[in-house]
Amino acid sequence: MERTLAIIKPDAVSKGVAGEILSQYEKAGFKILAMKMLHLSKKQAGGFYAVHQGRPFYESLCAFMSSGPCIALVLEAGDAIQKNRKLMGATDPAKAEPGTLRKKYATSIERNAVHGSDAPETARFEIGYFFNGLEPVDNQG
Ligand code: GDP
User: Fold this and answer.
1) Cα of 38 from ligand 1 centre, angstroms
2) Is the beta carbon of 20 within 6 A of some atom in ligand 1?
3) 5: which strand partners?
4) Of all helices (H) and strands (E), which one includes residue 20?
5) d(CA 23, CA 103)
6) Mutate to test the pocket of ligand 1, among 60, 84, 109, 114 (most ligand atoms within 8 A of CB)
7) pTM tops 0.85
8) Considering the domain 2-130, what is its CATH architecture?
């Protein structure tokens, strides 16, 4: 079993599709181990996306991610990281496969509805950014 960090981004929360997205994580076979809604400050968004510092879209991305509440989740499944990347689809919704979350819910390459960790090291960092070690519920059987 593997864990990944997912975020339902502010665009999807404000569109009112958070419930639909949660349902699709469950239907895809992910177990939700932790979940919280929070409104990031620009600085907190910047810390999460620190790897992108210096990219032309960094400022705009941080403004978007702090524009309203988002929902952070720890998802568990076999091969959870790749499984969630597949469920999300490509970063740019114009290039995302039909049926993927980004194809269904994204507005643009920036306002693209969901986040998912892209590798085991980033998943560890990202889960730790939002949740303490006791928060993910691992006794669900
Ligand atoms: P991801 O792993 O698919 O989320 O993509 P990246 O790690 O490359 O980028 C992080 C986030 O930055 C994306 O999910 C988008 O919200 C945003 N982003 C990525 N590329 C661009 C871009 O070219 N322009 C803008 N405005 N935003 C981007």
Assistant:
1) 20
2) no
3) 74
4) helix 18-27
5) 16
6) 109
7) yes
8) 2-Layer Sandwich (3.30)
Joined tokens for residue 83: 């499984």
The three-state secondary structure class of 53 is coil
Contact 108, 90 (CB under 8 A): no
Q: 54 CA distance to ligand 1 centroid (A)?
A: 13
22 lines ligand 1 (CB under 6 A): no
Question: How many Cβ atoms sit within 10 Å of the Cβ of residue 19?
Answer: 9
Show the tokens assigned to 116.
């998912």
Per-residue pLDDT of the chain (141 residues; tens, 9 = 90+): 999 999 999 999 999 999 999 999 999 999 999 999 999 999 999 999 999 999 999 999 999 999 999 999 999 999 999 999 999 999 999 999 999 999 999 999 999 999 999 999 999 999 999 999 999 998 776
